[in-house]
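note to self — DONT lose this again. spent like an hour looking for the file last time. sequence + predicted structure for the chain T wanted, 298 res
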Amino acid sequence: MRVTFNAQNRNSTAGLEDAASRLLEFQRQVSTGKRIEKPSDDPSATLGSIGEHTEMAAIDQYARATDTIASRLAVVDTVLSDLIIQVERAQVSAASARGTTKTPIQREAVAVDLEGIRDTIFSDMNTAFNGTHVFSGTNSTVAPFTRVGNGPISAYAGSTSEMVVDIDQQRAVKMAFNGQLLTQGADAQDIFVEFDNLIAAVRAGDDAAIDAGMSALERMFDRVSTAQGRVGADLRSIDEHKVRLGELKRSSTKRLSALEDTNMAEAITGMAQADAAYRAALGAVNSVTRMSLMDYLR
């Protein structure tokens, strides 16, 4: 069977184009470091790559949420520590006012000290982080407690609902707290009313009322200590979770690299082979084009 010049030329040219395309592909992989440039390069790997990118985006979102919550809880932990210090100071100060030997001047000094401690607790309970109040529950744009001038401190104005944020698919952490649980709990009156009553009792030298105020302080101490224990546990859990997220991110990155990135050793070998094939195809085309009419008439 005689092969025509056109057919042979066509076959040689097609072979050259295939060899050139393969060489260009390996050159692209080596220069970009990416094995997949478009979905058609490897549909199966592309599907896996999409899944890994989705997973990494979720990990990054959880990591950002975790960082924000960790910063917020660190502030809460600091405030709770100060609340404990202030309540302890108030207990010591109130205890020093007990007894019939105290002079009016001494009792007034204690009362003034208690007023300062009350005002510090008021300030602590109104702590804000990034423009939102940490002890107003879900109503975080509203200050939990207010006062006009040196007047009485208002009742709790925040929400009793608390806000939690997911840091993983199966893990949520509280980030906005019901301040009323700290200042009042199950008591009939909040701690600011108790402070006002305690201050009045100190000035009056009423030991029984001072004892009642000290009992209210002790109950708040217990509530705040319990809350701080939970916040501390959450902070430790978050630290562990950060490590876990980092491990998940590294694993996903490794899988994504296996799907998308070029195996340089294989690509360089393939490029060398493709270059040799291209040169051979180019030689074949040149050989065909040099054939004369007499070569086909023999």
